[in-house]
Amino acid sequence: MKKGITVDSNKLTNDIKSVLEKYEYINVTHYNLGVYKLSLNRPEVFNALNDELMLQLSEVVSLLQDYGARCLVLTGNKKAFAAGGDIDEMSGKSYAQVVEEQYVTSVWSKLERRDIPIVAAVNGLALGGGCELAMLCDIIVAGYSATFGLPEVSLGIIPGAGGTQRLIRAIGKAKAMDVILSGKILTAIEAERSGLASRVVEDDKVVEEALYVAHHIAKRSKPVVNMAKRVVDYANESSLQNGMQYEQQNFYATFALSDQKEGMQSFLEKRQPNWQDK
After folding, report:
1. 3-state secondary structure string, 63-74?
2. pLDDT digit string (tens) for 88-140?
3. Which residues on neighbouring strands pair with residue 49, listed in sequence order?
4. For 8, phi and psi rounded to 5 degrees?
5. What value, to the nearest 5°, has the Cα angle with vertex 249 and ends 245 and 253?
6. Domains and CATH numbers, the chain
7. In the beta sheet, which residues pair with residue 119?
């Protein structure tokens, strides 16, 4: 583990420990600086994403955000980040059922609305819903063995958890069309070169690198990080003109923060800032 990154489970209160232990599909590890690693735990089906797993993930993220976490790392195992949606669960659903349940949308939209940054640590398969989940995160760190794809058309459906929308924004229309229509699988190197993944490292270093990134995020002022995340997210949803206006509004808003004064003063005094998160 890189210097400065340590497991710090003792700081978890007994109350939250007992709550987290109830989530069988999500294993939680607490590190210093308010960083948490969430590991998907359905190894027998390559972490296929069923309703219960996604519900548990949404609840854990919300719980940790309320608990004061500063950054999360989401990972799977050596074979798979997540191989896709649970086909066994989906296969029997009718049109009326998916519409009535707001299938996928009802749970995934809660994850989309979070404030806390999430770094995806991807080894092995990230296909279908697994690729969409990785793209739902803010940063993707991939191992050389990682593969990304949206093969839903081969099952008679299309991506339904943001795949068509996020992939085109990440890698452009031409490459996105190739992946979605032909079933092309992207290697980790292709994903990094295309702009989908941020970093590619050796497989056994993926989680370590993701934690390293998360700790650098966690060291910053929490309201400033959240503000920056919102502005970058907004860029995917707006015109350049609207995005520039939104950025300007948030830039001005940082000058109302005590952390802006502390950040600039610490720079002038050549010392580390003492963030107050306000």
Report:
1. HHHHHCCCEEEE
2. 999 999 999 999 988 888 888 889 889 999 999 999 999 999 999 999 999 99
3. 85
4. -140, 50
5. 165
6. 9-218 (3.90.226.10), 222-268 (1.10.12)
7. 73, 139
The span from the CA of 151 to the CA of 179, in Å, is: 8
Q: Which residues contact 231 (CB under 8 A, 6 or more apart)?
A: 243, 246, 247, 250
Separation between Cα atoms, residue 121 and residue 211, nearest integer Å = 9
Residues 6+ positions from 31 with CB-CB distance below 8 Å: 5, 6, 7, 8, 37, 211, 214, 215
270: tokens are 């050549």
* Prediction pTM value: 0.92
Report the b/e string of 189-217 with b at 16+ CB within 10 A: ebbbebebbbbbbeeebbbbbbbbbbbeb
Write out pLDDT tens, residues 5-56: 666 655 666 667 778 888 999 999 999 999 999 999 999 999 999 999 999 9
Q: How many other CB atoms are found less than 10 A from the CB of residue 235?
A: 15
